[in-house]
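DM from R.C. (forwarded with permission)

"hey, sorry to bug you on a friday — could you get me a structure for this? deadline for the figure draft is monday and I only need the backbone to look sensible"
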Amino acid sequence: MNDPEGAYAPLEGKLRVIATILDSGWIESNETWKLQALGVAFGDAHAQKLMLEWVTVEDEYGRDPALNWPGTAIYSYPLTTISKRIERGEDVDARQLFEMACKLLTDMAYSGRYN
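My reply, with the result:
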């Protein structure tokens, strides 16, 4: 492909990149920073589909990037969503994980309990 940024821009492009990297085994379970980079792409896909905003959350443990559903107290931490599973030795189906997370976030947002 002659336009890697163009290929990554659509939602499907992000999911394809993540799935290809995971399915090909290009990242080892001990390469946390690389797995967390996939988490950023995973978060970008969620932000794109659900119109979430990247924010920084600070607490007594430090600062972490998170996604926020605007107008709610709903936060998602995609940076470690993939890495934690791979480090535990789990197989990760990126598309299935993405759809499950989208459903959970949508259900939370529309339940009215988090506004």
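R.C.: lifesaver. The chain has a mean pLDDT of 92.
me: no worries. The radius of gyration is 15 Å.
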